[in-house]
Amino acid sequence: MKLIRTVDAEGAVLCHDITQIIKGVTKDAVFRKGHVVTKEDIPVLLSVGKDQLYVWEKEEGMLHENDAAEILCEMCKGGNMERTQAKEGKIELKAACDGLLKVNNEALKTVNGLGQMMIATRHGNFPVKQGDKLAGTRIIPLVIEEEKMEAAREAAAKVTGGKPILELKPFVHKKVGIVTTGNEVFYGRIQDTFTPVIEEKLSEFDAEVIDHVTWNDDDRKVTASILEMIEKGADVVVCTGGMSVDPDDKTPLAIKNTGARIVSYGAPVLPGAMFLLAYYEAGDRTVAVMGLPGCVMYAKRTIFDLVLPRVMADDPVTPEDLAALGQGGLCLNCPVCTYPNCGFGKGM
After folding, report:
1. Per-residue pLDDT tens for 283-342?
2. Under CATH, what is the fold of the domain 174-326?
3. What angle do CA 93, 95, 98 make, to 5 degrees?
4. 177 with 209: CB under 8 angstroms?
5. Helical ranges in the chain per DSSP H
6. CA dihedral 339, 332, 197, 296 (to 10 degrees)
7. Which end of the chain is more exposed for a tag (fewer CB within 10 A), N or C?
8. Facing residues of 119 across strands?
């Protein structure tokens, strides 16, 4: 830090905020710490009584906060993202399209554990809209060692394999088949109130329902319908009903008999414990097949809301992913649902 004349300050970097006080009008920083003084700024600085300024003195091996922020942004920014300009060591990232945000948690913790820099993100594996804020980064001091920023870059790359810490997977168009099961619906004893719920949730994405059939509790018919829908080009098949452990609940068996790879039958989420997820390989396509328990019909938010965005973004779900939902997997059934602005589905 050094003291210079204000009239000579063009291009210099301020080491502290400059406050402007006008009685009854304003009392605020007219320039913030880290601001690079322009020729036009000099009359303003003089008008607030600053004939001299403390400015940053460039040192070998040290980076200004904005220059260091660029490195941090580079480490974070994946495709389909927009960024703000560096200001006071801060850069924000926003979604350039609708999609699913992915966060490399291990890399995030690694960088945040180094000190003097930070990355704050929204929760990963949740849908975002174009324009939504995804993350904010900040360099804490005015200047930081270049060596420390390079160490952060290397540490993050070691965890991510050289990929960005954040990724935004765009949602893609999906053709969907719906198989409704249950004697009570098939024989007209009750109205099908499940399918409209599924269609409403699908409407939040670029989804096209290409087929819908209703069967009684005959697993062979359900198996055949799933395979037929896949043959017609379905990218996703949703089966409703028959997901419990009663003798006539045969949907899990029907899905298994298609030859699909079962990821999990059961998930540590309430509502949604009896959820089934499988993947069927159809040539060069991977079709997601889901068995939805009855709670999806009547509960505001369930396991289906946590998995569907990932399916719509072609983001494979593993058994480990589902197991990790246990922490945060309990919906509190609030009188007024604020999802996704709540803890449901948000583990560590």
Report:
1. 999 999 999 999 999 999 999 999 999 999 999 999 999 999 999 999 999 999 999 999
2. Molybdenum Cofactor Biosythetic Enzyme; Chain A (3.40.980)
3. 165
4. yes
5. 41-47, 65-76, 105-112, 146-160, 183-186, 194-202, 219-231, 251-256, 295-298, 303-312, 319-323
6. 130
7. C
8. 137
